Amino acid sequence: MTHVSDALVFKSGAVMPNRFMLAPLTNQQSHADGTLSEDEYHWLTKRAEGGFAVTMSCASHVQAAGCGFPGQLGCFSDEHLEGLTRLAAGINAEGSVSVLQLHHAGMRSPKELIGDQPQCPSDNEKTGARGLSIDEVHRLKEDFIAAALRAAKAGFNGVELHGAHGYMLAQFLSPTINQRVDEYGGSLENRSRLLLEIIDGVREQCGTEFLLGVRLSAERFDIRLSEMQVLAQQLMHEGKIDFLDMSLWDSFKEPEEDGFEGKTLLDCFTELDRGDVLLGAAGKIRNAEDARRCIAAGADFVVVGRSAILHHDFPRRAISDPNFQPVANPVSVEHLRREGLGENFIKYMANWKGFVES
Question: Which CATH superfamily is domain 8-326 in?
């Protein structure tokens, strides 16, 4: 029987001391130019100190035009290297595996934030985003790969490609948003091409000892569960990634798409032939019992967000107490400060209904 306290080894050689990964959480704490702030450093290293086996950054944009929210950590310029190097070293020093999540917001980049029209795989009337030219698609691919190289140079153990939540890579995967008529649009094979080419490039440039993961959504965001199952199986069969991080929103709900009755969203991915690719699950894993339930259902590790905000040492608490329940919301501002959140992060969390005391 697998326990949440058991170690786990990625094929790259990186070792998770337990089965808890910190979710890549938006926190709006970095500087306007994307450089690391003291608050961002403190928030992440405190989670590494608290026992998270993998500490992942917030989404870090690979192009200035791909910024999705204020105070986002950047990885699109060598000007970010000093801060990224400090962050990787701080996480690694706590014995946690350091991962930088690579991201482009695409049509979800606010025009007032990037100072230009947002971009999308194809023109999008709803958001006013313009479609990328073929040269821009190729540039985007190279910028993802360059960001991975920058992360490796900074000392991160690896990167995760953000292909979920309706951001740029997910927009390419969508059969409704992506209306391209070239080799990057149409069939699932074509819509997956950019993601797969980025994976190939990162592997070629960073080597097999560099940890590489992919985050996908299972439903919502104009994507289809049946297609994500096919893509997930392809990624596992090809074996070029170390882990797949499935963002399920609710790991144990029944899928909305027809044909999956009687299954949970998690079942749809644990039933796949994984080879040596590890599978993580995110989605309403709030307490120790939820974590154990996910592992028992076949996930290799759990990805924790909300409870990691409430308790920097959630893994240690969940491992030592099988009945551990996080503090109930709403919580005080002082509680969040004690748990390592900066003022901008606290303001952001105040937008979550019922999370912070008013």
Answer: Aldolase class I (3.20.20.70)
